[in-house]
Amino acid sequence: MLTEMWTSLVATILLASSVARASLSSANGVYDTSNTPVNLPWNTYNYCNAPHVNANHYSAPPISGAKLVYLNAVIRHHKRTPDNLYPEENPLNTPWDCSNFLQHNYGGPGTTHVFHETNIPSWHPFLIQIWNGTCDEGQLTRGGMDDAVQHGV
User: Fold this and answer.
1) What pTM was estimated for this model as a whole?
2) For the chain, what is the HEC assignment?
3) Its domain of life (predicted)?
4) Phi then psi for 99, rounded to 5 degrees?
5) 92 φ, ψ (degrees, to nearest 5)
6) CA gap 39, 50 in Å, rounded
7) Closest C-alpha to 117, from 133, 94, 138
8) How far apart are alpha carbons 143 and 148 in whole angstroms?
9) CA triplet 122, 124, 126: central angle to 5 degrees?
10) Phi and psi dihedrals of 103, rounded to 5?
């Protein structure tokens, strides 16, 4: 009984592993750049960037006078800086630059806009242990902001 369970478990793990490997190594996607080559279809999977859709990618419903009653939108997080650094990893990461656009937090109508800015000087004695550049961990980058605008967010 125990041998059968282990055999079944190992077979399941091997199957899951081969399925995962096949989906991760698919030749039908772009995994190394935000720019999908122009010779690929508009909806080619791009790990770094969702396709930019427009009205040309949709067709009208077959029923005349149809009315949209529900929409479920899934929005990606867009391009962001890495979420964290491991100790002593900073020399491997070039400084991230988020100084080319101003981000603010918005609390609703009538509230004050709160702006934030990050700057860690290159001479900082603990630079090797902290973030490098003008971005915070997980912060939206200029490329991410441009994507969000193009997606209509």
Assistant:
1) 0.55
2) CHHHHHHHHHHHHHHHHHHHHHHHCCCCEECCCCCCCCCCCCCCEECCCCCCCCHHHCCCCCCCCCCCCCCCCCCCCCCECCCCCCCCCHHHCCCECCCCCCCEECCCCCCCCEECCCCECCCCCCHHHCCCECCCCCCECHHHHHHHHHHCC
3) Eukaryota
4) -85, -5
5) -85, -15
6) 16
7) 133
8) 9
9) 120
10) -105, 145
pLDDT for the residue numbered 25: 40
How many CA atoms lie less than 13 Å away from 131 in the CB half-sphere? 17
Whole-number Å distance between alpha carbons of 137 and 13: 34
